[in-house]
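From the pipeline queue, job 12 of 40. The input is one protein chain; the requested action is below.

Action: predict structure.
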Amino acid sequence: MAEQQTRRFPRISESGIEALRRRLDVPIEHQAEPWCHEATRDNIRHYAHGIGDDNPLWCDPEYAKGSAFGEIIAPPSFLFACSRIASGYVGGLPGIHAMWAGADWTWYKPARRNDTITTQAWLKDLVMHETRFAGEALQQTYHVEYFNQHGDRLAEVDSWCFRTERDTAREEGSKYDNLKARPETRYTEAQLADIHRHYAEEEVRGARPRYWQDVEVGESLPPMVKGPMTVTGFIAFAQGWGGLYIRANKLAWKQVHAHPGLGVANRFNIPDCPERVHWENDFARAVGAPAAYDYGPERCSWLTHHLTDWMGDTGFLVSASCKIRRHNPEGDTLFIRGTISRKFVDEAGRHSVEISQQASNQDDELSIVGSAVVALPSRE
């Protein structure tokens, strides 16, 4: 009886998992329309600004004319806006929450201004895990490949979500017990001044080459700050990235009519999208999160922003991996740090460095870990 009173959402079922298994390695013919089909000047700028990145290589056509590209290009993580699947639009298990949790990216060419971008995608893997957040959770991994209008492959990514039972996470999850017991974060003027100092000191390397010979193993990248988290910031990201299920009026009705599991009644009994965990504290808590929180692809993009600021216009981000370790609720601030862990020349002859990254919040709680390979220009 108690379970009937507290259970609002479906459970993960064996039949639902089996239905997903039948989709493994099958090309997805009809993908949800992406936010961006083309890498236009405005689409690139809106995405960059949505992650707090004002690099002139993405945002200033006059500046970009003087670069090796001769025009603006898109930041590497812009490709999230060109595939809802890479961004967490998962299939199957209606009513089971999807938490975007990580990605392994490889890039081959930059997306240039006015490129038309298409994708191919398929479900790659399904793995069950035991978690402190929600007990059993299904890791659902998709593979997405990106192409420009010439048929050139721009990038590929393995991107995954954890599918979790909302009721189990809310009623039984223990991951955020300590956080839920603490008072809300309140910043002092001195703490805000320190965060603002980081922003004032943030450096875009830009046109000055960072040569491979000038960096050493063990060297640290300048730290980068993101936050304090606000719903305004989450909306800024969604404006550039597009969101997964954000629709209005008739289009919202059409979405819920086609996919009833996406219509979760709000306090007015109006079916509304589950994406509102990012701006509605009550619904975030209903699915087991501590409060409204940032987007996963947003946080992944912050790590790549950290790298592109450091490497400059003549560097190339070859690959990047990120794994999310906790939610960033409204009020959190992230401090992103990186260290060069290896120098090498790859099989293509590129002078490369491997970089380890991690980001922790204002309470020194680990939020995300990452690693990347960056190709740098050589003096030789």
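Job complete. The radius of gyration is 21 Å.
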